[in-house]
Amino acid sequence: ALANNNKADLFISLHLNASVRPSLRGAQVLSLRLDDYAGRAGTSDTASIPVAVLGGGTRVIEVLPWETAQVGFTRQSAAVADILRRHLAAASIPILTTPSSELALRPLVGVNMPAVLIELGMLSNADDERELNSTEMTARFIDAILSTIGEIRQGIPSGDQSR
Fold first, then answer.
1. Nearest-5° angle of CA 68, CA 2, CA 117?
2. Euclidean distance between the first and the last CA atom of the chain, given in angstroms as a whole number
3. Which CA distances in Å does 115 have to 18, 77, 97, 118?
4. 57 exposed, middle or buried (CB, 10 Å; 0-12, 13-18, 19+)?
5. What angle is formed at CA 110 by the lines to CA 153 and CA 19, rounded to 5 degrees?
6. Paired sense of beta strands 58-63 and 95-102, if any
7. Where are the alpha helices (DSSP H) in the chain?
């Protein structure tokens, strides 16, 4: 809601993962799938309503159903995920065997802008846990994320049209 209300250009959600398999390790970049919205896109009516503004007056806003907010951004979100994955690999950050996936992820559902979720690594893996606690790894993640933001400031590719 904070990102939506402030009309952010990009939403990045950072998380730590775990697995029942301690050998599993690496970062993962996720975005929502357009297929998750197959029956919902275009089915809801958006309405424009006036709302009061602090200090007086009104502003007209378009009401968008929360569960479909990401529909118009899934391709851009997937493109951001691909760019971010490339920057993580360039920073020598271990990537999970299935590095980039599109899943139904609750933290991204109501986001009304391109959005990705980064699983920084597996706390159930001793190597990942040690690296995630290091200043060097933190710096590499920050550099990769900032490089991604710098690249997409020039414009986010529309993404693969087959998605």
1. 65
2. 27
3. 22, 5, 22, 10
4. exposed
5. 90
6. unpaired
7. 2-5, 74-90, 126-132, 135-152
pTM value is: 0.76
The residues with which 95 forms a beta bridge, in sequence order, are 27
Give the residue from 46, 9, 21, 146 showing the smallest Cα distance to 96: 21
CA proximity to 93, closest of 146, 131, 126: 131
| DSSP result, 87-107 | HHHHTT--EEEEEEEE---GG
- The Cα–Cα gap between 31 and 82 comes to 10
Check: CB of residue 40 under 8 Å from CB of residue 32: no
Return per-residue pLDDT of the chain as tens, 163 residues. Answer: 888 889 999 999 999 999 899 999 999 999 887 665 555 444 445 566 676 777 778 777 665 555 667 778 888 999 999 999 999 999 999 998 765 555 557 788 788 899 999 999 999 999 999 999 999 999 999 999 999 999 999 998 765 443 3
User: Where does residue 159 rank: exposed (0-12), middle (13-18), buried (19+ CB within 10 A)?
Assistant: buried
Beta carbons within 10 angstroms of residue 59's beta carbon: 9
